[in-house]
Design goal:
This protein is mostly helical. It has 3 helices and no strands. It folds into 2 domains: 31 residues, no CATH class; 47 residues.
Length: 101
């Protein structure tokens, strides 16, 4: 957000307000208020990989993340890491059969 903490087009004071605004408005309504910009995108950087998530799961994830006070992405990474760690732990235990998943 700009220094006065308000979006120039929507007047939003938070990212939630900004998202809500653009959920109900079109850029076409404000096209004359925009200007051309140039930017570069580094497609070589691969620090994140994205997977599709079912909408109902994404909604539950966002709600849970809000309760914990973290982003949905952060909570998903924490939960996924726990699952991976648990899976590795189970694979390392001798005498137990592995189930196909």
């Amino acid at each position: 957000m700009p220094e006065d903490n308000r979006s120039s087009i929507s007047g939003s004071r938070s990212y939630e307000e900004l998202a809500d605004y653009w959920d109900h408005h079109s850029l076409a309504e404000h096209w004359n208020e925009t200007s051309a910009v140039e930017f570069e995108v580094d497609m070589q950087q691969k620090s994140s990989i994205y997977f599709p998530v079912a909408k109902f799961l994404a909604e539950d994830l966002r709600a849970a993340a809000s309760l914990y006070g973290v982003s949905a992405e952060t909570l998903l990474n924490i939960w996924l890491q726990r699952c991976v760690d648990e899976s590795r732990k189970n694979e390392a235990q001798p005498g137990e059969s592995r189930r196909a998943g």
